[in-house]
Design a protein that fits this description.
homodimer; about 180 residues; alpha+beta; 4-stranded mixed β-sheet
Chain lengths: ~180, ~180
């Protein structure tokens, strides 16, 4: 959620926008001979965590989400078109072939709500489930209402109401201005 | 993505799994009086970046993705059910109300491909678009084929073929074993 408060250099019109419908068209890269279909797709977001149960409590009690799979080193959640994984950081480092992953990392995740009045109650619930308020909710210059909460591993979650973005009943989010 | 090589503690059956269909059912939290619909949803992944153009080159040339919106501090990409944002790190820190965000952060993103033979060509293309190979592709113990590439801001991308996960024509990814 943040919308741009600087003037846009380019905004695709609705007809041009890469909507889920548009993604149905295979995108073959010009000049490439491989010909694989280039989807505008992310399949997994994996968060490195220190302790499975502590993280699991935050996501299952705080957000109310249900794992689709879990064992002693990873918990997977089926999300809106992709998968969220919470994976022991040491195991993620091994899989990635690099060490020294740090928190807080230079990224954030967002969960958008349908109603402005739901933002603060969810933030409180997250804080009561092992999270920590980073920024109390307020109105950003571009409109809407949002705050930030850190999960138990210091990963940042923006909890937001943004009246300009569409969210369908299946949780699929479409950019809007 | 990695599948579990440790025995699962719990695997939801297909009927129980939180599929996009299942997400259509509002999840009202037991014992809560607020009654907002708790979607198993992430609306945005925001990556903190140092320079717009450098990052934009990686995502538009490397992955072949098209921005849905861009200005001097942020580029948004409409993804499979959510939005990817690449945002100047200083602006992200201001929005988040915290400083000191670090790279490499303890997370990774994954892009899954339909064919094993597409993994290495995409990794090369990403490396030729400002990325850097972190781990050459190989076969993990749990099956499939994957490697890791860092984007120009040192955010890790897993490029994977996983025959057990479903990806529909719209790019929506469903967990599988």
């Amino acid at each position: 959620m943040r919308l741009a408060w600087l003037p846009p250099k380019r905004v695709l019109t609705f007809a041009n926008a890469t909507s889920p419908m548009a993604l149905n068209t295979p995108q073959i890269r010009a000049g490439e001979r491989r010909g694989y279909e280039m989807q505008q797709q992310i399949s997994v977001i994996t968060l490195g965590i220190e302790a499975i149960e502590r993280s699991r409590d935050f996501y299952t009690r705080g957000f109310g989400w249900k794992p689709v799979f879990e064992n002693d080193e990873i918990v997977f959640y089926q999300m809106n078109g992709f998968v969220l994984g919470t994976f022991l950081k040491t195991a993620l480092e091994t899989d990635m072939g690099r060490s020294g992953l740090m928190q807080p990392g230079a990224f954030s995740l967002a969960h958008n709500l349908a109603r402005e009045e739901d933002v603060e109650p969810l933030m409180r619930q997250l804080a009561n489930s092992g999270g920590r308020i980073l920024r109390p909710a307020d109105k950003p210059p571009h409109g809407g209402f949002r705050g930030y909460v850190a999960d138990p591993d210091d990963h940042a979650w923006e909890i937001a109401w943004n009246p300009f973005w569409q969210i369908d009943a299946g949780g699929h989010v479409i950019f809007g201005l």
